[in-house]
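Might I ask for a little of your time on a matter of protein folding? Here, with my thanks, is the record as I have it:
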Amino acid sequence: MPVALGREEPLSKRLETSTETHGPRGLGYAELPASRTPLDAEDAATRIIETARGRPGEITLVTLGPLTNLAVALEREPSLPRLLASYVLMGGAYGAPGNTTPTSEWNVYVDPHAAKAVFARWTAGGADPPSRPLALGLDVTEQARFVPEHLRHLAIRAGAQPLDAGALGREPIEAVGSVAENPILRFVADALRFYFEFHAKYDGFYGAFIHDPFAVAAALDRSLIRAQPVFVDVEIGRGLAHAMTVADWRGLTRKPANVEVAVEGDAGAFLDRFIERVGNLAAGRFGVAR
């Protein structure tokens, strides 16, 4: 799987990171071995464009962070929305409170100028409605609350010993025995343990909102969510509304819808599927057929 380096700074503002949420490297307590695969020779924006050009109408693009690279790609290739089969993003808060400021979600907050450009350009030039981005914001992703009991079930699905899996169902979680020996289970447990501790400190529960997997799941199966078309703009000025995703639910601006915003999600079905899929993947490292 090629990995391309993206732009290292937002379009117009100073870069901010969130080490208190996911740790200094973004993986919590988890560690990965050094990659033996070199970075792609192309930058991320070029890789997006060339992939879409090479397989027109076949590629589903999913973004799980700030939209800087996509905004650059759109600047270089305005017809990108017509080259893709679909586009799904995790980002924004369209009716829910923000998680970074009272009004903004983290991915949009890091580069609101990029998000504003993407939303404005995506349907410019008369794109058909199916080409509108599907946005999973905090309104839906915070319905998927992953807690230690889910992690215990995931470990059992993977074939971990029951007593070892039980250590994941307590607070705090602990990766021991067969869980610690399985590289996938160990990685998931170590990454989530940091995230669980963050939410325990700031949100009053020992668990985590697993936003990004929900967006990927919706890209694979749209029946997991219900979306509503709406015109969305992004506030780039200063003040409390900085980086707010402003959704015109009443149609007051009389502007055509440019985003499909997820307004309902089947969090239970998503969590069950997450446990099944990741558990099965980890089972392969135990040699257990599922």
Q: What stands out?
A: The mean pLDDT is 95. Strands lie at 60-63, 86-90, 134-136, 145-146, 208-209, 225-230, 232-234, 245-247, 259-265.
